[in-house]
TrEMBL record:
Its main location: periplasm. This is Glucan biosynthesis protein G. It comes from Fuscovulum blasticum DSM 2131. It is found in: Periplasm. The keyword Transferase does not apply. InterPro entries: Gal_mutarotase_sf_dom, GH-type_carb-bd, Glucan_biosyn_MdoG/MdoD, Glucan_biosyn_MdoG_C, Ig-like_fold, Ig_E-set. Belongs to the OpgD/OpgG family. It holds the Pfam family MdoG.
Length: 572
């Protein structure tokens, strides 16, 4: 009997893409296929695994050469004079080839929208009723990966449905313009002795993950996951999973009833030429209110860039919807640290919303963990980009050496083409634990989507450390707040990073500070000797129980030289 230690690497951390609710996998547990296992180590209770479980885990992680176990056992059996069992044949079974293209996908989505919505097959109750611990005992055997027996630059592992993933999805392999459906087979998966005997007819696939040569040549590593409703996530080189993206948000504000979660009911994964940096995945979206055809062109690296081409076919008129939605987690940092009795300095996958608007401004809005659900809208015409960012990159900002929040990606949305008038929407939901996704951001066009229409959107998603913006102004490095000690009011400090635009003479800088309610006093601009940048400090006197929208701008000689800092505060 041995203990298994955590495996370092992007594919071994995160929540495995098991859906929106973060109920899937704890970030501190290595992920094996769909499953995670507890590992011995600081802060974790080790669980002893059998030799069979260990070997299955190692092979699933790619830590054993193909067929080593089978060949070794066969050789031992032959030496002992026993009957030799031939090694298992690995790989997936494919159906008959059918022509496939972006045009055929759009035609299928359009035809689907003309019919009534029919939910995809649901897994049987015995698969839905598995416990979390039971579901960790089954994982995909990576030796059966899609395209593993070819020179394709991309491979795909297949998640199994069950527990939180209650619907089956179809998976297809595409090569040379022909698609072949992947047949579900429970033999594609490995289990420990503790996994119950269940009828394989009661389940199917629930999603896919892509593997490629992300860090080292010939070493295939996970870098993107598609699973759960229209959720997907990716990482850049040396990063670990954090926030997620979705295909389409419907009814997020709750203005017209509960939020609707359409789903990707089928995926098509294209084989990639040897050495190619790009992977292509297509998906068919379906839901009560809309269908859609999605194409994802994924270039791994730092950042990993996903170019999205989406065509949406509404079944009904859509007025409350979001393009390029992002979902993240923010529990606390320096701005609300006092609310949490926690040994860590900060807990979040993202710490701010950044917007490059059509007016030429770069907006920075630190995230909040509010007392009630809050919505904020940032109106714009000619949006240049937006995203939920993770700016705190120093481990000292968290002091959580297992979750490694400093390695979570930021996610920047770059519109391709003119998205017209609308607003970037930010939804902040109260949360008391880091297992909950409580932050949502998306683009809401002013114009509704008419029933029976065809709506096209294209954009790029950058999964990396920062936003790919021009960098012409100083960016906000940090924000803090606290009650004044010897006078009334609340002080806010905003630290700007060093930047040539700030100039040599700090006295030439002007801070323009405003609030939507209450008053501002004691505005100061002074050097920050700790960073070499500039600190703006201001005291706000805000009426009790009334929200105040705070705004700070930094100018020099009638030119804006810093990001526009925005924040909401409720006076107490």
């Amino acid at each position: 009997m041995v203990q298994v230690q955590p495996v370092e690497g992007a594919g071994a951390a995160g929540r495995c893409g098991l859906g929106a609710a973060r109920r899937s996998c704890d970030a501190r547990r290595p992920c094996v296929g769909n499953a995670c296992f507890r590992a011995g180590g600081a802060g974790m209770s080790g669980s002893v695994m059998s030799r069979r479980a260990l070997l299955g885990t190692l092979s699933a992680l790619g830590l054993m050469p193909q067929l080593v176990r089978a060949e070794g056992e066969a050789a031992t059996a032959a030496a002992e004079g026993a009957t030799v069992i031939e090694p298992k044949t690995f790989g997936v079974k494919l159906g008959d080839p059918l022509p496939f293209s972006r045009a055929t996908l759009e035609a299928e989505a359009k035809a689907l929208a003309a019919a009534d919505y029919v939910p995809p097959p649901e897994v049987s109750s015995e698969w839905r009723d598995l416990t979390y611990d039971q579901f960790r005992e089954i994982w995909f055997d990576t030796r059966n990966g899609l395209f593993r027996d070819s020179d394709s630059a991309v491979r795909a592992d297949l998640f199994i449905a069950g527990l939180y993933q209650t619907h089956e999805v179809e998976v297809n392999a595409v090569k040379d313009g022909m698609a072949r459906r992947v047949a579900f087979d429970l033999g594609l998966y490995d289990t420990t002795d503790r996994f119950p005997q269940l009828d394989p007819a009661g389940t199917g696939f629930s999603g896919i993950r892509l593997l490629g040569e992300l860090v080292e040549p010939t070493v295939f590593q996970e870098y993107a996951v598609f699973q759960g409703a229209t959720y997907f996530r990716a990482i850049g080189k040396e990063q670990i999973y954090g926030l997620s993206a979705r295909g389409l948000a419907i009814g997020t504000t709750g203005a017209n009833g509960p939020e609707e979660f359409p789903l990707f009911r089928a995926y098509w994964v294209e084989a990639a030429a040897a050495g190619s940096a790009e992977a292509v995945v297509h998906a068919l979206m379906d839901g009560p209110s809309a269908t859609g055809a999605y194409t994802f062109r994924i270039r791994k690296g730092l950042p990993t860039v996903i170019e999205v081409e989406a065509t949406v076919y509404p079944r009904v008129e859509l007025t409350d919807f979001g393009i390029a939605p992002e979902t993240s987690m923010f529990l606390f940092n320096d701005l609300n640290r006092i609310k949490f009795d926690d040994f860590r300095e900060g807990v979040h996958d993202s710490d701010g919303l950044q917007i490059a608007n059509g007016a030429g401004e770069i907006l920075w809005r630190p995230l909040r963990n509010p007392e009630r659900v809050e919505m904020s809208g940032f109106g714009d015409t000619g949006l240049r980009g937006f995203g939920l960012m993770q700016r705190a990159r120093d481990p000292e900002s968290y002091l959580d050496f297992e979750a490694k929040y400093e390695r979570r990606p930021s996610l920047w949305v770059e519109p391709l083409g003119d998205w017209g008038k609308g607003r970037v929407m930010l939804m902040e939901i109260p949360a008391d634990k880091e297992i909950y996704d409580n932050i949502v951001a998306y683009w809401q066009p002013d114009a509704p989507m008419a029933a029976g229409s065809e709506q096209k959107f294209s954009y790029r998603l950058y999964w990396g450390e920062d936003a790919p913006v021009d960098g012409l102004v100083a960016r906000v490095q940090g924000s803090r707040t606290g009650e004044r000690v010897f006078e009334e009011g609340r002080i806010f400090t905003i630290d700007y990073a060093p930047h040539p635009a700030l100039g040599e003479d700090i006295s030439a800088l002007e801070a323009r500070v405003s609030t939507s309610s209450g008053e501002v006093k004691g505005v100061q601009v002074k050097p920050n000797p700790a960073t070499g940048g500039v600190r703006v400090a201001a005291t706000f006197l805000m009426p009790e129980g009334i929200p105040a929208e705070l705004r700070v701008e930094l100018w020099r000689d009638a030119v804006r030289v810093g990001e526009v800092w925005l924040y909401r505060w409720f006076g107490a």
